[in-house]
Every structure is written in structure tokens, then in C-alpha cells.
Amino acid sequence: MGRLKTITRRTFLIGSVAVAGGVAFGAYTVAKPHDNPLLTGLGDGEAAITPYVRIDAEGVTLITPRADLGQGAYSVQAALIAEELDVELDQIRVDPGPPSPAYWNTAFADEAAAFMAPGGGLGESLAYGAISAAIKTFGVQITGGSTTVPDGFVKLREAGAVARETLKLAAAEKSGIAITDLRTEAGRVLLPDGTELSYAELAPLAARITPPQDVPLRDPSGWRLIGKPMQRIDIVAKSTGAMKYGIDIAVEGMLHAAIVLNPAQGGALNGFDATEALKMRGVSDVVEVTGGVAVVADNTWRAFEAARKISFDWGPAAFPATMDEHWQALADSFTEELRDSRVRDDGNVEFAFAEMPGLIKAEYRAPYLAHAPLEPISAIVRVDDDRAEVWTGTQIPRFVQSNVARLAGLDTERVKVNVLVMGGSFGHRLEDEVVKRATEVALLFRGTPIKLTYSREQDMTHDFPRQIAMARMRGTVRNGQVDSYELGIAMPSVIASQMGRQSLPGTGPDSQIVAGAWDQPFAIPNHRVTGYRARELAPISSWRSVGASSNGFFYNLGLDELIHAAGADPMAERIRLCSNDEARKVLETVAEMSNWGSDAGEGRGRGVAFTRSFGVECAMVVEVAATEGGIRIEKVFVAAEVGTVIDPVNFDNLVKGGVIFGLGHAMNCEITYTDGIADQDNYHAFEGMRMYQCPEIEVRGLENGERVRGIGEPPVPPTAPALAGAIFAATGKRLREMPFNKHVDFV
Amino acid sequence: MIRSRLIAAAFLLGVVTAGPVVAQDVATGEAEAPPAPPPSVEEGLAGWQLFYEVASHPRCANCHTGADNWPMWSGPSYGKPQRHGMNINAGDSRVGAEALVCSTCHVTLSAADGGPDPLPHAAPRAATPWMLAPVETEWFGKSSAEICAQVKDPARNGERTIEEVIAHVEEGAFQTWAWNPGGGREPAPHSKQEAIDALSTWAAAGTPCPEE
Amino acid sequence: MRLTVNGQTHEVDVEPEMPLLWVLRDELGITGVKYGCGIAQCGACTVHVDGAAVRSCQLPVGELTGEVTTIEGLGQPGALHAVQQAWIEHQVAQCGYCQSGQIMAAAAFLALNPEPTDQDIDAVMSANLCRCGTYPRIRAAIKSAAATMRSA
């Protein structure tokens, strides 16, 4: 299994524990600080069993530690367990599980470790600094960074396998038949004479048996579920209105709250007049919370309406008031003093620039972007004297738990967090401000559950958006080839901003400033990628594919300009420059899929882009037509190397979704600030892609590696540059900033 | 008052024949006042100019669009005029019957002043089913001269007399909405009364139209 | 105030200005209908009023004239509407939050136009926003549902 196997082997064993009426199997976390510095944070009592499978009189319940934001995580995790446990997906229930420190997300830390590793680049080694320590802490049971599949691929199958073998041992003990004569199928152990023993009836006995270790995992050739199209376990509920999302949950006796935060984000509340609001029907109170006020009423709409009737005296934003100042701050960041990392420094770009005439230079921009999942954020919090309970859709349940505990003055274990189904996230639910604000209100209404629902406008204007970023490219060409390519990228640190809100340190190099650029598999003779850390501007957060979302655009755009200057073909030159087989294969695959090189036709053009992010090589060709009304995106071809595709249907859906997400934002989305206030507050001004603009998308997953990777994020970074390349091919217009509708119309 | 001034002027100009309404006005004795001199062509043009400012405003022009049946989005909220989002086309029916009827989002109120102040950027609503104006009344992007010619052309104004045109501005549910759109939307300029007065002056001056 | 939802009559004591969306969700506990934008931009709140698709976030309940059908009333497991069946077959949903509205919009549309072209589908369904990007599957599911409904 290579490296991933080694790491997971070192970090957990599968154990079991008796539970009421049955048994639970899970990872027994072993702290080995000398072997893996990422485990040093484990304290006593944290090396406890973390259940993945519970079998009791109710049947089989799979406990899926990674939240489902819409990416099908519950189904994929269930399939991994069920593959080895020999249960059918329709026989089982799924429980998102409680927040627990033992649900290590090892893959998330793995991603950071590659950047942090000395020798990861030729230029300099990066110290194991505070940022990596923060990622370690943050990496505990977060759902993010497309890590659900890589993290669970071994762990969850092993949990299933160990549980199966333990149940067989129990059946052997009960029946007196040798374990080698027993088979398992569909939630039962089958005896040679055809007798069936259900897992549920064996569970109490299994609880007393020490689970065997090192149960071999099944060979991929024998997989029943993995790699086959499966029906998502939530698909019926999501097609009949039965699925309860966080915003749909009602708790007995709850009151509803709406919030109005200073539109100039982070600014002070100097005063407010709620006289009118307090007179309105159903309104209980208007209370001050951090950064604004909350209206408490007897239903959501009355709270929203009352919130509109409050007048405020707001202080200014905690960051520059105008976009000019934000861009200027980035422009001023390309200095030695603000240099954050230079992990990639091949050959000698300075020498190459001096040697060859015709230095090519360009500057690129990527705007702030809201996450704007369709379900606005909400949380229910109930605080009692000795305990608190939270109901919310979150990717960071442990932070939620500790933040509520801190605000309520309770011990962490006195706070129960119920993780609810989420109507999208894209990184939005890696923040927990809504829970903190709801807790502030709940503290004033002790014993009463408070459900705080953000209006769309509050949600969008108080999002912590994707980073704003600027890049500067310089390069030269020689004999029709790219000879030197220097890319400097300036942005504020996403990780520092995000960690700061969790009171975690955020110093040291930030891998996200250069993610999707420093580690691209292209052997350009003279190649340098430098990250510059701009000062904090608007507060920012992780947005689907994080640093790579802007840097994939910058990197490919710079490469395109150089390839064009060299007179080379964007596809052929990328393939020629490839320094690894996976990258070459995905590029060759999209070339073939798109019939690259054939005549695109009058007024039409194709663009290609490639980004390696989250361990996935992803290549894309976009084909556009320049029509009278504007650019029409007609076709997209995507190839991605993910090692193993767990569910081809979900894979196809996620890749297409990533393409549409990337195209939509590249076309028409940005968050801008005027007087420190976000100009876009709802979808009319932040539209994304609509169905009539949606191209035909053809997806191919390559499965050449032993590794397994998530696909939620990797399709996003190459999308915008492939579109820009296509527009250039069709019109000769080089777009160097997003959103593109500043310069071209789309139809 | 306005109407009587128009009618008095019309009398003098001989552009309308006396009808029951006029007779009634006469009977109330208002005609006894010394007849005001008719507005000059310049005054008429000034009246038209004011109305043109109304007609070309986004509150009116966005839905007075041409045969391609695209409602428009323009005005202070939009950087540049654009088609109504969401690929909305009202079809030849002008009410969206071919695909998505306007009333899917645009509520038909039971009273002109019904409902609370809508949220900013919500679908505007009026006390009549939402629709595009008839295709002959295309105003969006048209010049003052073009709109002027259209407004007084019975073949293109719903076979209305000028008086009926003015009554339409006075009584129509969309016109009521245009000056009171709510939701923070910029209302049509001037006021409904000023628009009616201006049209009346224009009519009394013989409906002069500006040169192209 | 009295309203009929999914064949059941309910008495509610609310302001006539309250949008139907919030009456359904907060007063009647019918949560298949979703709040996404509140301004008719996303379509997640789409219900049927006498069979016609309506954005329930825009409709003051006092202006309601007709019977309301929500996704729950369109079909249930065991008695699914053809559109829901197609949505399941094509595994349309990712997060699924917009899908109640998408399904309600598609069902009303197919009742009027049983043989939609791609252009027809784009004309109607572009008013429903999906942030996850499930549009290709929505298109395919609508075509399947149309075929099923025609052969039924």
C-alpha cells in the first residue's frame, strides 16, 4: 500500500468494546510520539476506542466520522465498512458520531506534512513551524481538504474486516464449528449446514472476544461495492423532501433568533434602537451579541422582519474600506520582507532572464469569493447550568464543542454536539461563528433552546470569503520552448485568519499561499515559485480547493502566456514538460477526449489547464464558442488520477459539480467591499452558473495508482484557466483577472 | 383639475370632440374660467421630455422590451444593463406562458397597496399579473423621438386616445408600482402626478415629438 | 386563516404578510420546502399552488388562493412521482438542499410540456440554482421523467 498504509498502520489498531446489547468496533488510537510528530497532542484517555461499527439488537450502525456536506461522504464511508463487513448498504443505518479526538484525519495532516518536510523543495527547507502545529490541531476530525476518502480508505475497511472476523469467532464459539468453515453474507454468518446467525444475535458474544489483528484486507478484484455504481443512502430522502438539514431541525420549546451584524465586518456596534422591533408580534427580545444584535422571536420570519426594523450606529470595518486599498496591499507584498516560502527554485531564473532577451511579464488577480452554500448557516444551542447541547451542521465538531464550553463556562465533556446534515459547505462550515453567536443568545435564555438562522444576506455579507490574491509572472522562452518561469504569489494567510478565529497561532510559512503552484509536475529548466504573505485584510477562510483555487489559475495562465510566446501548443508543451507519469497520462487523456489538435471551427476555441492539488492530477479542456451575444461554454473534458474510484456515480457527479462550481465563479462571482461593506448580499449579485450556461461535461477517472484520493476539490483549480485559455483561443483576448464577465459577456 | 386643463386646451385646439365627460366639466362651471392659452410647442416638448425620463427609467423600460421578449435588468443595482437573470424569457405571450410564467415569482397582489415592504432585490409585485408590456410599446434603448411617436400612435398604443393614454398612466397597477416599487428600488423619476401633468401639457401642445 | 396543504386543511393564526414558505416551515412543520435566498433567486422554496409552480418565499399567505402541494405531497416512497423516481435513478442530489425546489419546478413544467427540448428545459430550470452543480443530472432526469410520464 506504500506510504499511506505505513502511516495509518502506525497510528491505529482496530479494537472492540461492549455496548448495551452488543459490540462496537473501532480504531484504538496509539500515541507514538517518536514515530509521528503529528500524534504528540494526544493526552491520557484520548487513546480510547473510536467506534466505526456498532452492532446491537437494532442491527448494524456505521459510524461515519466525516460529515456529509453533500459530497456523498456518508455513502462512501458506509461502503468502505460494508465492503469488508459483508453487509448490504440497505441493511445499515448511519450515525455521524460524536466529536472525538480519536477520529484522526491523518490525510489532512499528511497534506501539510509534504509542504513542511525538509527537502520538499530544492530552495530551502521550511521549519516545522507554528502553522504546521496549528494544522495538526485543526486536522482533528475536520471534514475538509478532500480527505474523507484517503483518510477512511484503510481505516474503515479494517474496521469492517476486524468486526467480521470477530463475529465469525463468536459464531464458531457458539456453534462449535471451525472458523474456516464459516462464511459471511448480508449481515449474517452462514454455517455449512445453511444455518444463519445474524450479526445482531452474535453481537453480545462478540463483545467478549478479543478482536484479531492484522486481518488481511480483501483484494480489489473481489470487491462487491467499491468501484461499482451504488445508490447513495440519502438519495431517496433527498428526492422526497424527507432529509432533515440543520435548518430543518426543531427542538422542543425552542425560540427562533435572527441576527444583524455590523455590515462592515468586524466593526463595532456603537448603539442601536430596537423600539419598533420590540413592538412586533412574537418578538421576545433584542439582545446584543458580539458584532451586532440578535432578535429572539417565536418564528424565523418574525425574527427576520423585526431585524429589519432596528436602526444602528455601526463602527467602521476592521480592514481597509475600498478594494483599491486591498489590491494595493497585495501589490506592496512582493518584497523580501514578506517572503513566506520559496520551496520551488529549479535552475536559475535570474540567470535565464539575463541571458535571454524578451522577458515576458504579467500580473493576475483573483477576487474574494463567498462560499454561499444554498442552506444558510444555522445552529440550535441550549445552555443549562451544568450542561449544554448544540445541534448544527459543522465540519469542525470538536471546535464547536470547546467553544461552546468556553463561552458557557462548562467542561468540554458537558457539551453535547449533534452534527446535522448540511446543505452544502464548500468550506463555509469550517467556521463556527453561528454557534458562538447562538450560544451568546442561549446564555441569556438559559434552559431554552435558541435556534439562530442567518438570513441569506447576513450569511453572504458575513462569510469569511476565499482569499483575494495577486500573482506576478516573469519568464522567457528559447527555441520554441518554455525556458524560465517565475511566479510570485501574494495573498493574506488563509490558515492564519482561520486559525486566529480559533485562538490558534498562525505564524510560519503557509503552504496554501503557494498550493497548486509550487508542486506542479513540470520540469521547466529554470523555475521558481515564491509565496508572499500579505497583511491581513478582510477575514478569509478555506474555500473549495483553498490556495489552489487562485493559484491553479495563476500558474496555468503564466504557463499559457509563455507557451504562446514560444509559439508552442498549450497541450503539447505541457505534456513535453511533464515530470511525472500521472500528469502526462491525464493530459494525454483529455487531449484524446477533446480531440485536441483538430480544427475547433470558426469563432471557437479550446483551452487546457492542469493542476495537481490534494494529491490528484487533474487536467481539463474547455471548449467555447464566441457568439454574437457573448461566450458560450460548450464542452468540458476532465481527466483525473485518483488511484481508486470508490463509487463511479458519485465520482462523476462530484467532478461535474466541481467544474460547474469553478466555471460559475470564474464567469461572474466576486465579493467586493465598499466602505468595508460587502457589495454582494444575495444570489442576484453572486449568481454562479445557471443551467442554460452549463456545458456538456465528459469525465474520466484514471485509476493507475495504489493511492486513493478525494475528488471534491481537485477539479476546481484547473477550471478557470482552461476557460481563460479557450476564450483566448476563440477571441485572442487574454483574461488575467476573475471574474471574466468584467471583460466578456457570457451566454 | 389636470384633466379639465387638458380638455380645455383640447377644445381650443379642436383635437377632441366634446363628449359626456366634457359636457359634465362644462356643467360644473369650470369652463367659465377664462380659457388658458394653449401650451407652446416648447412647453409641450418639455412635458414630453419629463415623461420620456419616466418611460426610459428602468422601472418602466425594463419591461417595455422588444420582440425578443427578454425582460431587462438595469438601474443603480447593475453595472451595465443586462437581461433578466436566470435565463428568463417572457415568450410571445409576454407573460412567460411558454416556459416559466412571470407569476411563478412575481406575486399578483389583491390590492395595490397590499403586502409589506418586500426585501431588496425580491421579485417585484403588483396588483395585476406580472408581464411584459405589449411588444409594440418597445421602450428599452429607444430614443425619445421613437417612444414619442409610439405613444401617440393608436396602432402601437393599444388603440388609445391620448386621454386614454394619460388615464392608463393614472390608473394602471404597474404605474402605481413604478412610483412605489418598495424594497429599496429606485422609483420612477418625478411623481405620477408630475408625469400626468407633463403628458397633459404635451397633449395640449399638440403632442409634439423631439427630432431624432 | 385556513389553507390546504397536501390535501390537508390547516388553521393558522399568522399575519397575512407572512410568506407561505415560513408558514409551511415554521407553523406547519413542513420542511421539505427550503429557504435559500428569500428573494426568488434560488427556487429552493418552490411549491405548487393549484398545480402551478410558485416561489413560496414571495407569496404572502394572505394572497394565497388555491391548494398547496409541497414535495412531501408530490410523492412518497412507494408512490413516487415520476420526477422523483427519475431523480433517484439518476442520483441527482449532492447536498440535495435545492432538489425539492428543482423537483417541484420540473414536475409543474412537465405537466404543461410533456415533450420538452433541451432549450425548454434550460428556459424553465435556469431559475433554480444548484450550488453543487448537479445540472447535467437534472437535465437527464427530466428527460427520463418525461419519457416515463408519456408512456404512463
UniProtKB/TrEMBL annotation, chain A:
Domain annotation Aldehyde oxidase/xanthine dehydrogenase a/b hammerhead: ranges: 240-318
Entry keywords, A to Z: Membrane, Transmembrane, Transmembrane helix
GO molecular function terms listed in the Swiss-Prot or TrEMBL record: oxidoreductase activity
Pfam families given in the database record: MoCoBD_1, MoCoBD_2
Keyword field contains Transmembrane helix: yes
SUPFAM superfamilies found in the cross-reference section: Molybdenum cofactor-binding domain
Entry-linked PROSITE patterns: TAT (PS51318)
Record carries keyword Calcium: no
Membrane-spanning residues: 12-31
Protein name in UniProt: Isoquinoline 1-oxidoreductase
Lineage: Bacteria, Pseudomonadati, Pseudomonadota, Alphaproteobacteria, Hyphomicrobiales
From TrEMBL, chain B:
Residues of the Cytochrome c domain: 42-207
Protein name: Cytochrome c domain-containing protein
Residues of the signal peptide: 1-23
Keyword Ribosomal protein: no
Keyword terms: Heme, Iron, Metal-binding, Signal
Family matches, as InterPro entries: Cyt_c-like_dom, Multihaem_cyt_sf
Entry-linked SUPFAM superfamilies: Multiheme cytochromes (SSF48695)
Molecular function GO labels: electron transfer activity; heme binding; metal ion binding
From TrEMBL, chain C:
GO molecular function: 2 iron, 2 sulfur cluster binding; metal ion binding; oxidoreductase activity
Record-linked InterPro entries: 2Fe-2S-bd, 2Fe-2S-bd_dom_sf, 2Fe-2S_ferredoxin-like_sf, 2Fe-2S_ferredoxin-type, 2Fe2S_fd_BS, Beta-grasp_dom_sf, Diverse_Oxidoreductases
Sequence ranges assigned to domain 2Fe-2S ferredoxin-type in this UniProt record: 1-74
Pfam families on file: Fer2, Fer2_2
Entry keywords, A to Z: 2Fe-2S, Iron, Iron-sulfur, Metal-binding, Oxidoreductase
Gene3D superfamilies per UniProt: 3.10.20.30, [2Fe-2S]-binding domain
Keyword Metal-binding: yes
Record-given protein name: Isoquinoline 1-oxidoreductase
